[in-house]
Specification:
The protein is α+β, with helices and mostly antiparallel strands. It folds into two domains: about 5-100, 2-Layer Sandwich (TATA-Binding Protein); about 110-255, Muramoyl-pentapeptide Carboxypeptidase, domain 2 (2-Layer Sandwich), CATH 3.30.1380. The protein is built from eight helices and ten strands. The chain has a six-stranded antiparallel sheet with strand order 2-3-4-5-1-6, with helices on one face. Strand 2 and strand 3 (about 30-35) form a beta hairpin.
């Protein structure tokens, strides 16, 4: 099986990441605790997995970073064990460390109500990438998403962008594809809107393979915006993704149309 550009340890017990965050700090994204050790990004899962990743870095580079920060990693694990109230020790946890498999998703982040559809969608995504290759898989999923996005707009006929975003959000959430919100920040030139998706059915829990893989969601957004604007000068870029080492997925919508 292909390998990822990330490395994981296992505590061996489920943990309450919200409780841990109150004691250790860090950023709670959904049910995942995100922290940092120097330049290494750390994700702590409810399953007890501790994943280390470094954005846009090859695995060999991450290995060196882990070696250089061994003391910091041990200290982090010791603090985590204490905050979680787990009966183990850092030495035992360190022995579990290994490189992630590329398709080793941690589904503990998704939630019971989305567990089944998320697992199915992840298997579809994995199979397409394995057997069709990245280009064809991406094209297939994007086109399928675009058709859905266009269909939504044709059927519901949103009157403005606010209604359009509400429509896309409802579609993603009702079908358990993910929870969407608009990111309120200063937008760059030509960026129409920035959308963040958590609990993504296609990527949540995925290890870092340095590739964005939520092509269906990207297609839904692109198809909806293109149909709404009546123009094909719309593009959507997935700038953040679980499969790129993030704890959520984020999409920037670019449009030259009014």
């Amino acid at each position: 099986m292909a390998k990822a550009h990330s490395f994981s340890y296992q505590i061996g017990k489920k943990i309450d990441t919200a409780k841990v965050q109150k004691k250790m700090g860090g950023k709670l994204i959904g049910s995942v605790l995100e922290s940092r050790i120097d330049e290494i990004k750390v994700h702590v899962f409810p399953s007890g997995r501790i994943r280390l990743t470094a954005q846009d870095k090859e695995y060999s580079e991450l290995q060196q970073m882990i070696f250089n920060n061994t003391v910091g990693i041990i200290s982090f694990i010791e603090e985590l064990i204490k905050a979680a109230g787990v009966n183990t020790d850092a030495k035992t946890v360190m022995k579990t460390g290994k490189q992630d498999d590329a398709y080793d998703y941690d589904q503990s982040v998704i939630g019971e109500e989305t567990r089944i559809p998320a697992g199915v969608m992840q298997m579809i995504t994995i199979s397409l990438y394995q057997f069709a290759g990245q280009f064809q898989a991406s094209r297939t999923m994007t086109q399928a998403g675009e058709k859905e996005g266009r269909r939504l707009v044709k059927e519901k006929k949103p009157k403005n962008k606010k209604e359009l975003l509400k429509l896309v959000k409802k579609f993603l959430e009702e079908n358990s594809f993910g929870k969407m919100e608009e990111v309120k920040e200063e937008k760059r030139r030509l960026v129409d809107v920035i959308l963040r998706v958590t609990s993504c059915a296609f990527a949540s829990g995925a290890p870092n393979i340095n590739e964005a893989i939520c092509d269906f969601t990207r297609g839904v957004i692109r198809g909806a915006f293109a149909e709404f604007k009546g123009a094909e000068t719309v593009s959507v870029k997935e700038t953040r993704c679980w499969a790129k080492g993030d704890a959520y997925c984020e999409f920037e919508v670019y449009s030259l149309a009014a």
